[in-house]
Amino acid sequence: MRGPSIDWGLILLKPGEFMAEKSHGHNFIDETFYFVDGNGIMIIDDKEYDAPEGSVFLIEPKEMHNIRNDSDKSVKIIFIKGEYKPEDKF
User: Fold this and answer.
1) 33 forms bridges with which residues in the sheet?
2) Are 12 and 76 in contact (CB under 8 A)?
3) Cα 64-65-68 angle, rounded to 5 deg
4) Do 57 and 33 contact (CB within 8 A), yes or no?
5) Distance (Å, rounded) from C-alpha 46 to C-alpha 48?
6) Mind listing the domains of the chain with CATH numbers?
7) What is the 3-state secondary structure (H, E, C) of 1-58?
8) How far apart are CA 38 and CA 87, in angstroms?
9) What does the pLDDT look like over 5-64, one tens digit per residue?
């Protein structure tokens, strides 16, 4: 679901996959990640956090972030941004 007032969707990571090739951030938008199914690793500003099923992470503007699936099962994560601004990414 994209724009204009919200941006959200479902991320599916297979074993060994990352959300993105490298960490990224946003200048103005915060982003929430909810681990719906499976366990992953949330990476925020190069620090790794266990992200068991049911975990929620709020990523503030300018925080670099990525997600890794170190498990042997797929992980499903919902992401939510308050606005749809695809240009707000670095």
Assistant:
1) 57, 79
2) yes
3) 150
4) yes
5) 7
6) 9-79 (2.60.120.10)
7) CECCCCEEEEEEECCCCECCCCCECCCCCCEEEEEEECCEEEEECCEEEEECCCCEEE
8) 30
9) 899 999 999 999 999 999 999 999 999 999 999 999 999 999 999 999 999 999 999 999
